[in-house]
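tool_call: predict_structure(chain=1)
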Amino acid sequence: MDYKGESARGWSTVPAGWSHAKEYEPGTKEFFEQVLAKRSTQEMPWLFEVIPFAQTRGQKVLELGHGAGYDAYAFCQNGADYTGIDIAPANPARLRAHLGFFDFHPNVMLGDAENLMFPDGCFDVVFSNGVLHHTPDIGKAFRETYRVLKPGGQFWVIVYHRDSVFHWWSWVFFRYILLGNFRRQSYRDALSDIESVQGSAKPLVNVYSRRQVAALLRAAGFVVDEIKIRKLEKQDVASPGFVYRWAQKHIPQRWYDKVGEYFGWYIIAKGRKPLV
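tool_result:
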């Protein structure tokens, strides 16, 4: 299967985050602001805790898979010299339109994380949020990232966590085994369904352990500075209806957040290119 083509088609049609603002017309300033608000309060309230956007002022930042521009906005707002690439043909224009509402005009273009078009050693930070678990050769993407970073440069990457409640309990046990989906589809296809866009595209979906991500970073030449786990929300825990309703009412989100620090859906890893 042409997984890169599926990713390009899927996220050109419906970029990540668009379900957060169905009451607004896509492409409007109100739409973009509503998605930003829901990401910061519901989907990724922990993002600004783990990613130091404010430290990138004046630094050359490359984002791999910029999407509609949600994280690009944070970098630009904090004064970064931002460049972004995306594999989906519609996304560079989307980002330009969205950030143009705020008078930001970053450099964005079509690109492939496995084959970066930039010279060696030209960025201070490379960032990728929820993207590289969709690329067929993540090791190559990590090596390309290492190449384009300056000595001492930092790589901040967020990928799906294999050892998470959402993966093992909700997706594999509950949906794939208990509901009988294993009879009609492979595990690989079941993972792709996590990202299926309105039944049209089926991007590649990979999941990783902390140890695997650390090994990928080291194999590419990075020093591993930090690995954290985040994101467990009430809706991430599949259960029969009456159990789900009881949990929604009686279990506070802070309990999920604490469990999510060990068994959440996202791995946030930070690697550093050595000075010599």
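agent: The longest strand covers residues 149-160. Proceeding to next step.
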